[in-house]
Amino acid sequence: MAEIHHFTYGWFNPVVAFLMAFLGSLLGLVCTARARDSHSPGRRARWLGIAAVSIGGTGIWLMHFMAMLGFEVPDAAMRFDLTMTLVSMALGVIPVAVGLFLVGWRNDTPPSRIIGGGVFTGLGVLGMHYTGMWGVRLGGEISFDPALVIASAIVAVVAATAALWFATTVRGWGPIIGAATTMGVAVCGMHYTGMAAIEVKLSPMAGPVEGINPFTMIVPITLLAAAALIGIFFSALQAMTEEEFDRARPEQKDNPDAAWTLRQVTLAAAMAAPTAEHTRVR
């Protein structure tokens, strides 16, 4: 068996991977809390969609890829297959979205639905991890230790179930930060348990390895992570702003999904200005 390194750059990759998992989970839990407080199906769907991209895209897939940049087989050139890498990204977001909509669409979510959603989401995240590993190309054969694969599956299902439970229960910054930390540790634990299952047998007759060089993906992945976090933040900020406008608009109660026009926003600001001035005078 070939020698394998999981921490090629020391603690840089696991630390950055944990930060991705933590930040994605934190933003996702904040969004699910907003979804629970939304009285409109459209608003709730929007919040849950943002949460799915945050947890599945940033907290799980980007975490996985940042950790994968530290994976190396010193005696073999390693490349990534672009198609399998993109498939793994989809498997990181879609199962999380399904799980969040299962448990977050209604406020009275029964435990059976949380457990069922956790199993589905956990297996989807597991599929994301091993699809990403099947996208690794090197001059040899990759195999997996069955016992550690089973262990990683158990960790994935438990972590996903805990994440969905947190999504339906936690409120307040203290509990949300604690839950995001727990989710970050669980996601990283699942990843490195799965990585420990890898065994590589090199082939002396292997030809050139085709695919994308991992080093060329460092800058794009970093930019993608930054863009994802910024995009999620501004999407959430826009949704929060629209909801604040809705609360100040009486007719919005009959149609909570109606969009504000520029004229309505201007009139609302003009009406609010005298009130604010009166408050300062008093």
Automatic annotation (TrEMBL):
<feature type="transmembrane region" description="Helical">
    <location>
        <begin position="147"/>
        <end position="166"/>
    </location>
</feature>
<protein>
    <submittedName>
        <fullName>MHYT domain-containing protein</fullName>
    </submittedName>
</protein>
<keyword id="KW-0812">Transmembrane</keyword>
<dbReference type="InterPro" id="IPR005330">
    <property type="entry name" value="MHYT_dom"/>
</dbReference>
<feature type="transmembrane region" description="Helical">
    <location>
        <begin position="83"/>
        <end position="103"/>
    </location>
</feature>
<feature type="transmembrane region" description="Helical">
    <location>
        <begin position="173"/>
        <end position="192"/>
    </location>
</feature>
<dbReference type="Pfam" id="PF03707">
    <property type="entry name" value="MHYT"/>
</dbReference>
<keyword id="KW-1133">Transmembrane helix</keyword>
<feature type="transmembrane region" description="Helical">
    <location>
        <begin position="115"/>
        <end position="135"/>
    </location>
</feature>
<keyword id="KW-0472">Membrane</keyword>
<feature type="transmembrane region" description="Helical">
    <location>
        <begin position="47"/>
        <end position="71"/>
    </location>
</feature>
<feature type="transmembrane region" description="Helical">
    <location>
        <begin position="212"/>
        <end position="237"/>
    </location>
</feature>
<feature type="domain" description="MHYT">
    <location>
        <begin position="9"/>
        <end position="201"/>
    </location>
</feature>
<feature type="transmembrane region" description="Helical">
    <location>
        <begin position="15"/>
        <end position="35"/>
    </location>
</feature>
